[in-house]
Structures are given as structure tokens and as C-alpha cells.
Amino acid sequence: MSDVYLNEKFIGTIKNPFNFINEIKEERRKGKLAKELNVLYDENSDEVYLDFSKGRARRPLILVRDGKSLVTEEIKKELKDGKIKWSGLVERGIIEYLDASEEENSLVALNEDELTKDHTHLEVGKIVILGLTTAHVPFANFGQSPRLNRGSKTQKQALGLYSANFLVRMDTDSNILHYPQTPIVRTFMHDLTNYDQHPAGQNIIIALMSYEGYNMQDSIIINKGSVERGFARSTFFRPYVSEELRYSGGLVDEICIPDKDIKGYKSEENYKLLEEDGITYPEAEIAGEEVIIGKTSPPRFLGELEEFSIAANVRRESSSMIKHGEIGKVDAVMITENEEGNKLVQVRIRDQRIPEIGDKFASRHGQKGVIGSIVPETDMPFTSSGVIPDLIFSPHSLPSRMTVGHLLEILSGKIGSLAGRFIDGTAFDAEDEGDLRKELLSLGFREDGTEKLYNGVTGEEYKVNIFIGNMYYMKLKHMVANKLHARASGRIQLLTRQPIEGRSKGGGLRLGEMEKDCFVAHGASLLLKERFDSDKTLLYLCEECGMLAIVDKYRNRKFCPKCGSNVEITPIELSYAFKLLLDELKAMCIYPQLKLKSRYR
To answer: What is the dihedral of CA 275, 280, 281, 287, to 10 degrees?
Structure first.
């Protein structure tokens, strides 16, 4: 007897699970049972699972009977003539939706010519196995799946024109590419998703070669001339919002230039950009930690006794400052009201980002890398016809990753740019490589996409032919300007007296055991002294009992709480975190006795 579960609840047992499942499927296809119902028989546990709960991912497949697809020539003709629609195919039981569990009991064919008697379903189309973003990758069937996943991920991170009305929006942090282009090598998905309206990349000339070791691993070389002509230039926007909140007791915030007598007043230098209304003006050049919206708030805690005291009625500073390490210009200032009728001020900052060493780029095939060097145009290699590549890509990135689609796109892009047409690179249905090679030959180039290149510095001809062509490259949102992090002395935590954490708060960068080893290996071990002195503190030790002593500088007294004042008290340097540990041990009634070397020699 097999147990039956409906939406994971036990409902009974059956004798013949195979007949039971086949009957349910047939009834569902006839429309007598809900189309949302899916069924699974688990042979290992001898259990049947029925499911029509919400939130399951289900996908359409064509039904197969006796090794033949139910989509016949007549049905194809009806579809073309518009006599039948998708919903009609589902109602007739030609197409059905399967979830992950029912797929376990199915055998799905990719092509119609692969069908055998064992197959239960056929894919609606080969490209349906790919997701929306992955289907944008040209020649996707020539790459391995992990690279396709990365290719779709990088497309989501690419800068472009995400919205045509970006100037009137206040998005958290957005980037706009200045000269986005539609790709030469494209898939049918580019037309379906209206990609021309929101492109996110540029067609550039790319050469596959090593250059002075600056494109080792995943680095890329960029032509400085291309950067100066506007390649990969973008603008970064970040909004700052402040509102006049209302508090109980009729107290309100006030957007203004803060007075000097308020609590937490910074300095006149911080408020220099504010106008009379306490808000900065458009096109003002700002740098980190300058105030752009001045605001004062009422005191935090008002008790009954303090209502009439002068100290309690001092307002506090609560202005909006530019984030630490950010620079830019004030792009727009908007003054409005929120739903509650409170004054709302929004200031948007913009910063032009020109490609620099450390910025991240990627192709659509999961080949991502950072700029290793920006080379002057005069030093870049060039072809016999004078073509200079915009980007030099390391050929060592290809063999282990097996991204053949990357090479095919370079070849196709070359043909597309020379012939002045778009190349169809749809996965499983792309233009034939052999035909593309013949077309390239007819255009007057070598069919394998290679050319003779000359050294830009010496003018010598390279001994090998270099693979060069056109490719769609994307600038990713991971820019080095957003990640640069350095600090000297600054804010510290109250408890441990160590630097606070986090780049945005102006905190320190933690050095671990391995980082310490790197410093030592590089012969920079003295750097460790300042790093590990971050919470250095001077304490006084009683040499008699080894406990911490007390030094009262005002009364010029030194004494030990245990031994009195007639003992030797020595100043010692140690980490404040260690002093905390000693305090913890004392709280556990453990006696942490410190012995000085000078006393016990």
C-alpha cells in the first residue's frame, strides 16, 4: 500500500500508485481536475504526493504520446493563422505545466528528432531552458553553465540607461552610462525586451594578447584615447533626504543654518555651502563631511523637572552631511511635503566617473576583470590598416573557462561592424560559424579573425597573428571610487577603544593573522606596530601583588587598592582589549596576576 499526501498532509493509501498517477494526469488533461495540480510518485519511500499549493515554479512543456509530439503540422498551421492561442493549447492538453516534483517522473526531450517511446514531454523551445537575462548572452550554447550564470549576473550589474526619467527620480544610488549602445551581436531576446530603449554597454574593438604583464589573471588594458573620447564614462547619483519631523509636546525639527549655541555645532567651515534657508544651492561643489541640509532638532529627552531648565531646552544638531570619502556636485534640490504635511528636502549629488585603474568591466560571457593599466594611444598595438584596439584582453582567461561564445562574439562583431548589420547569436539558433567565416573572408580579412599587429612602442611586427574583433563590453557598478578606504586616527568604540568598523563610518580596516603574515613577508613588519597599537593604553601596575594600581594625578597620589601606598607602582603599556580581559577575569573571581620581568629576573 502506498501513502498519499495532498499539499503535504496525509489523506489515505492506494494499492496501485502507477495507475492512480496516470488516471490523475489524464483527468487533468481533460480538464476534469485543476490544471494547477501536480503529482509525484517517490519509489524509494513508496509515497504519492499531490500538490496544488501556491508559490510553486511551474514551466510549460509539450506533451508526447508514443514518441510523437502532440503539436502536429495542423496545429502549427492553426497557430500561424491565429485560430488557436496558447490558452487553447493548454485547454486541449497539448501543453501542460510541470513543477519540480512532477519533472522527477518525466523524461523531457530537447529536440523533436530526439524523441523516443520513453519520452513523456518535449521542450517548447530550446532557449526556454535559459532565463530572461541568460537568453541575452549570444552563443550561450557554446559556454558552460557556471559561466552563463555569471554572464547573466554581470548584465544585471552593468551600467546603462535604466530609466529615461532618471533626472526626476530620487533613486538610492544610481549610475548612468553616457554613451550606451545597442549590441551588434544580439539574440531574439533583445527585441522582445526592447533592449534598444535601455542599453547597458558599448561596442568596442578588443584584441586578445598579453601586454607587458598588466593584464595578467583577469586584468584588462584600456586605451587612454578611448577613455578621452568618452568610452565607459558614467555619472553616479546619490540622494540625501531630510524632513522636519514633529514630536510629542508640539516640538518640531527646523531646517535652517544651525546657531553656534546648539548642542553638537560643527564648525563654520562645515556650513559654508548653506544658503539662508539652510539648504545648499545647485551646482555647488561638495566634498566628504560637508553639510548640505542644515537641521536642528529639539532635545531628545524632556523630563517634567527639566521643562523650565535652560540646559534642557538647547536644541541639538541633526544636519545631513555628505558621506565620508564622497565628492561631487549638487545636481538638484527639491523642496516638497510628505504625506503628513511635513517639509521634505531632497538633494541629489552627482559625480562623473571616468574609467580608472581598478574599475570593473565584463563581457556577456562571465569574463569579468578590472583595469590593470590605461595605456596612451601612441603605445597601443595597431593593425596594418591603423586600427587600434580599445581593450586588450588576456588570452589566458579562455582555455580553463571554455567560454567559446566569447571568441565567437568577437568574430561575429567584426563581421557585423564591417558589413553594417546585426548578427543573430541566439542560443541553439545562431548564425552558422562556417558561414560567418566565409563572410569575413569575402570582406577582405582572414577567416579566423586574426590580423598582423605592430608594437606601438617599437613599431616592430608581432611574430604571431593576434585575434582582434568587435565586442559588446559592459562597465559594472563596482567602481574603485566607491571602495577606496583609508584612515589614520579617528573615531573609536566606547567599550574596546579600538577603531570602529566600516568604510562609511570612517572606520578602520581589520588586519587578521594572514594579513599580518603578508606584511612580514613583504618586509613591512614595522607597519604592524601602528596597526596593533590601535588601542594602546598606559596603566599602572603594583609590583607587589601584580594587580592594576591607581594613580591620582590631581592629588599626586599613587596606591594599590590591595597593598596600600608603600609599594612600587610601575607604568606599563598594553592593549585596552587585554585590560578588558583582566576585568572580565576579576568578575569571575579569577586572580590575573601580572609579573614584570624587571622584578623577577
So the answer is: 130
**pLDDT tens figures, 170-182:** 998 899 999 999 9
Q: Which of 8-22, 280-294, 298-312, 454-468 has the highest mean pLDDT?
A: 454-468
527-555: average pLDDT:
89
Neighbours of 121 (CB within 10 A): 22
218-255 confidence digits (pLDDT tens): 999 999 999 999 999 999 999 999 999 998 888 899 99
Q: Which of 218, 331, 379, 424 is catalytic?
A: 218
136-233+357-475, what's its fold?
A: 2.40.270
Q: Homologous superfamily of 235-353 in CATH?
A: RNA polymerase II, Rpb2 subunit, wall domain (2.40.50.150)
pLDDT band at 308 (very low <50, low <70, confident <90, very high): low
CATH number of 2-129: 3.90.1070.20
Q: Where are the domains of the chain?
A: 2-129, 136-233+357-475, 235-353, 536-587
Q: Is 218 among the residues known to form the active site?
A: yes
CA dist 455 and 442 (Å) reads: 27
Q: With the C-alpha atoms ordered 85, 91, 92, 94, is the resulting torsion angle positive or negative?
A: positive
- Does an H or E element contain 191, and which? helix 188-192
Q: What is the Cα–Cα distance from 557 to 550, expressed in whole angstroms?
A: 8
